[in-house]
Amino acid sequence: MRIVGIGGGTGLPVLLSGLTEIADGKTPLDVTAIVTVSDSGGSTGVLRQAFNMPAMGDIRNCLISLAAKESILTSVCQHRFENPENFAGHSVGNLILSALYQMSGNFGAAVRQASELLGLKGRVLPVTETPVTLCALYEDGTTTEGESNIPKAGVRISRVWLEPDQPSPAPGVLEALETADAIVIGPGSLYTSIIPNLLVGGVADALKSSRAIKIYICNLMTQPGETTGYSAADHVRALLDHLPSPSGRASREAAGEGRSCIDLCLLNSSTVGTAVAERYLESGSEIVCGGSEDEDQIRRSGVVPVAAPLLKDGQVKVRHAPTTLARLVVSLARGFAGVHETVCGQENRRLYVRNRRIYR
After folding, report:
1. What is the separation of C-alpha 41 from the centre of its chain, rounded to a whole number of angstroms?
2. pLDDT tens digits, 140-174
3. The sheet that has 123-126: what strands, in order across it?
4. Could you tell me which of 231, 237, 234, 233 has the C-alpha nearest to residue 250?
5. Which end of the chain has fewer CB atoms surrounding its CB within 10 Å, N or C?
6. Which of 67, 31, 60, 64 is nearest to 176 (CA)?
């Protein structure tokens, strides 16, 4: 089964690590991660500016998640220097990717070489090899640029875009979407890790035209300054607003229910502990609600909500359970493939009978 994950940040690696863990002889998986390269903060921001290269931090996290096994090398890649001052905050993995980029002059080649070093169980593809800047328009009409600056305004986001506009996709990206059996979007920061991938030339159209099942994994918690006050339906609505019509806002309002670019939305049904929820609330983050009314709104957008207990137990931070999430994705993809095969078989039989009548 060919599974493509789209996203970045700390969310997509959760899915990737789960898929890596459950893959075996009985569940053979061909996993590809399509990863955003628009981060502008921290170590990534400093290095991308210094070397005029795409952002590498999210790529690093996905490489580690798909590594064949934990090793000294994977641990070293995640290590961040504390001293001296000039290296403080930089991760070794970011420096390695920057060095490979400087040696090869090609970001895709640098990622492939890093993949070989780590012995990946799958592929990691930057969504584009073009250095890009993520920009945002807020509902009050103001704008900002730079991914790390977007949540700082504290104003509801209207839309985001890339500069330069519609950069070319990296080699292999469109082909991966075209041949996928399942395309999984998220989990991850809605406007800064997920949607930027859809703004690269051809990606949204390839997602729309793909015959794969398309699954969006909704976040467990809202993110201050980015999705403050968002329900699960708000997440889905924002995602669809950045995808081609007929899934755009105007078309959906005009046509009502209809086929969406996204088939399913996975929602968590587990309860977040009171103490944990209160601690998140202090930082401005709330549980993403997904009640019956919210699920109805998601259905009206043409997306089927699927609620399941997806929360990782016993954690100080609210996180998806990697293997639980991965098994659910594989199960849904298998079910979709079975239905698709049945429908295609029935259609082929109808065509066969009709042709026999015509040429008899």
Report:
1. 19
2. 999 999 999 999 999 999 999 999 999 999 999 99
3. 123-126, 30-35, 2-7, 182-185, 213-217, 264-268, 304-308
4. 237
5. C
6. 31
